[in-house]
Design a protein that fits this description.
six-stranded parallel sheet, alpha/beta, 26% strand, nine-stranded mixed sheet, 10 helices, binds NADPH dihydro-nicotinamide-adenine-dinucleotide phosphate
Length: 336
């Protein structure tokens, strides 16, 4: 039995619509209210998503709403203060990535959740992808020998309805590094079960980013134990397939199409016995992630990605931005 929860949504965002569709598949979830900076946007969102209430006054909403949980999906510079407000009101919080704009803010969020005994999750949905869970298990079982390298091709074409703050507002956390490298960093930590230590990133503008905002990045990340990962993120890659290749001393694992929101993928294992496709069951990535979060709020297990995991993926992305600025490899800040 899933724990019934009353939900508030902070941010009248595109991703909140997707998450609401997934939450509606989970028994007992009461999707109550949305908070936006615009009364009109809030009203429209509430009507479109069949929520009871809309507001621009977060403090009043949190005071009066009797919410169990809050989903924060505003632009990135607002995540920290909104999460702190929700935690102070006694709510569990699922926050979007990147958790905040700086590591000190992430530390405040994690500290506040711990102090209040509330669950803080980071919505790194790629941990829910069945192919990634299979790759993690197969690699951990030693089936492809010692893993020494990973290649992540996560270059997409940003759809027109998302071509806003991501491309021209560095203050809101725009740019492909905080948008996509942050997901890749979390996925690599999840797959390898190792910590990243150093990153060398090169960024560029390839036609979408404006001002100082990068729309393309490539990185080399060094993990504990001598594992190297290469990542490619882009907003301008038309008709590209996402690809993930895990390389071991005895074989490799190769996934196509897994780095999306769709929850489908194809996966192959290659070794001395040849190449075979491993069936990957399709899943609703957000349903899986939010189920785990709700269970964690009920004292059962942990979120797929915790606040601390969100802080780690941010540390990688921030070191990547520092590397792009300095032109050198940069150390990744140690865990809190
Ligand atoms: P959106 O651009 O859809 O929404 C972000 C904010 O922009 C909203 O909260 C809203 O502010 C404002 N906004 C929305 N529509 C308009 C409009 N027409 N005019 C002016 N302002 C508008 O962002 P996303 O949904 O793409 O991303 C939100 C967060 O979720 C980010 O942190 C992002 O990194 C993360 N994300 C995570 C994904 C995942 O799979 N984990 C996937 C996509 C995004 P207000 O609330 O004030 O109305």
């Amino acid at each position: 039995m899933t724990r019934p929860m009353r939900w508030d949504f902070i941010g009248a965002s595109n991703i909140a619509e997707r998450v609401i569709a997934s939450l509606r598949k989970i028994d007992g979830q009461q999707l109550v209210a949305v908070c936006s900076r615009s009364a009109e946007r809030a009203r429209q969102f509430a009507t479109g998503q069949r929520l009871e209430a809309s507001s621009t006054d977060l403090a009043a909403l949190l005071r009066e709403g009797k919410f169990d949980a809050v989903y924060v999906s505003s632009t990135n510079e607002q995540h920290c203060e909104q999460t702190l407000a929700a935690l102070a009101a006694g709510c569990h919080v699922m926050c979007e990535k990147p958790l905040a704009m700086g590591l000190a803010d992430a530390a405040r969020m994690i500290g506040a959740a711990n102090a209040r005994g509330r669950v803080l999750g980071t919505n790194h949905h790629l941990r829910a992808q069945a192919s990634h869970r299979l790759m993690r298990e197969i690699a951990a079982a030693g089936e492809i020998g010692q893993v020494h390298g990973v290649q992540v091709s996560h270059a997409v074409h940003l759809p027109p309805h998302l071509q806003g703050w991501r491309l021209d507002k560095p203050g809101a956390g725009g740019g492909v590094v905080l948008d996509i490298l942050v997901h890749n960093a979390d996925l690599l930590r999840f797959l390898l079960q190792r910590e990243p230590r150093r990153i060398h990133t090169v960024t560029q503008q390839s036609g979408m980013g404006k001002g100082a905002v990068e729309d393309t990045a490539m990185s080399l990340i060094e993990f504990d134990g001598g594992v190297l990962a290469q990542t490619h993120e882009s907003f301008v890659a038309a008709h590209a397939l996402t690809r993930l290749h895990v390389l071991g001393t005895k074989g490799s694992l190769y996934a196509v199409g897994s780095l999306t929101q769709a929850g489908t993928a194809q996966l192959w294992q290659r070794d001395d016995r040849g190449e075979r496709e491993i069936p990957v069951p399709p899943v609703d990535l957000y349903e899986v992630g939010f189920r785990a979060f709700i269970d964690a709020c009920d004292g059962k297990g942990t979120p797929l990605a915790s606040g601390a995991d969100g802080e780690r993926s941010m540390a990688v992305a921030l070191a990547g931005l520092a590397s792009a600025a300095s032109g050198r490899a940069e150390p990744i800040a140690a865990a809190l």
